[in-house]
Amino acid sequence: MHIARTGLGVAAATVVAALAVSAPGTAAPAAVPHTLAVPAVAGHTLVHGVSSPLTSEQCQAKWHINCYTPLQYRTAYDLNALYGKGVTGKGRTIVIVDSYGSPTVQHDLDVYSKQFGLPSTKVKVVKWGHVPAFDPKNSDMTGWAGETTLDVEMAHAVAPAAKIVVVETAVSETEGTTGLPEMMDAEKYLIDHNVGDVISQSFGATENTFPGSDKGDFSSIKKLRYAFQDANRKHVTVLAASGDGGATDMKLDGKTYYDKRVNSWPSSDPLVTSIGGTQLHLNDKGERVKPDSVYNDYGAGGGGQSHVFTRPSFQNGVKSKVGSRRGTPDISMSAAVNGGAWIYSSYDPTAVGWDVSGGTSEATPLFAGIVALADQAAGHRVGNIQQALYGLYAHHAKANGIVDVNDGTNNSYQGVTGYKAVNGYDLATGVGTVDALKFVPALAKASRHG
């Protein structure tokens, strides 16, 4: 089975302007059946020599997209007042799981932080298994290094004082029969050893590609849930990107899409909070010039009904939308490439500099930062947030910092009709997005674990 990273990038590097780090396909080491990385955007030529972030106006002129800094995100998500109260993620740890990692992740975070006047933080790297030496000519490794960079910098942008642990696994996710169990083993080990309060997963595999799924046998997925069950017991929050294929997703070959609605795991797991994607429309100060839309440009926010899991009790209040199945996403953050985030990387010596990246693998670490803030505000882990999240949505959602996304845009993609963003919960953005100043204390208060 093919497992895709869920980020999309538009590279604007100093030496090579290529498209870009976290395309949906991945390449595995030669001994493993693999598919090569597929560019996120075909046929675009970008300007060379971007050595520092540009304004949105300059990005529009060069690439016809908006591009945002963490300072704009902080305004858009109403974070600055929280920081003023000392809620910065201090004392909390975000765990990020990626294959191979990046050899320059600490340096790159330091450069990123300095650029925007943020305090940097120490990134602890945990190597799980015999992680091979980084090869900048290996497209699989550079793809995952880009993903790692995006994950770390976005989590840090929201929770600047939180500790970050990057878990590097030794096997690429191209073949789930080898990659996913290793990731789950790594997660369970860290949970059992009390490392981390929230786990951010920017990867997923279409449910239909798991062994046995063609016969309606999803035991291969259910056998992989042990890390999430452990997290649930230990009150660790687990997040996963809803994917970048809209209401569809990739087939086993990692290149083509299903011509019907499908969903992806681990996002579809009821023990996981599924993070969907929005498109922000901001001015240079980070103020909204119009309400958020569904992410749908060089990818589209994943969402729909699970083929594996029935509707969990926390979604009973939205059964008119999800039916008898588990519905995704649960909540959404910025993911559009047109409105993407500036990130800095130097793991590829031929492409050192600043890129604009998007995808639900941007949204997921952004929300991991929100959870870290809530953990700090609560004075304990908020743990599995599903019951609390849907409770906040059902009762005074706006006062609780849940912002509806309802502009009628949709996550139709690759010819498969998706779902519209309408009033209330929908299968394009979940309950919506967040106003952190209200949402963080509300989530902290609603979490029951002391």
In words, what does this structure look like?
By secondary structure, the protein is of the alpha/beta class. 28% of the residues lie in helices and 19% in strands. The chain is built from 12 helices and 19 strands. The strands form 5 sheets. Strands 4, 5, 6, 7, 9, 11, 12 and 15 form an 8-stranded mixed sheet that branches. Strands 2-17-16-3 form a 4-stranded mixed sheet. Helix 5 links the parallel strand 5 and strand 6 (163-169). Helix 5 (139-158) packs parallel to helix 10. It is globular, with a radius of gyration of 19 Å. The protein starts with a strand and ends with a helix. Mean pLDDT is 88; it is low at 11-49.
Topology (SSEs and partners):
Elements: E1 4-5, E2 7-13, H1 56-63, E3 67-68, H2 70-76, H3 80-84, E4 93-99, H4 105-115, E5 123-128, H5 139-158, E6 163-169, H6 176-192, E7 198-201, E8 203-206, H7 219-222, H8 226-234, E9 237-241, E10 264-265, E11 273-279, E12 293-294, E13 304-310, H9 319-322, E14 325-328, E15 331-334, E16 340-345, E17 353-359, H10 360-378, H11 386-394, E18 402-403, E19 433-434, H12 436-446
Helix pairs in contact: 4-5, 5-10, 6-8, 10-12
Give a quick set of tags describing it.
eight-stranded mixed sheet; four-stranded mixed sheet; 19 strands; alpha/beta; 12 helices; globular; 450 residues; 28% helix
Short description:
With 450 residues, the chain is α/β, with parallel strands linked by helices. The chain has 12 helices and 19 strands.
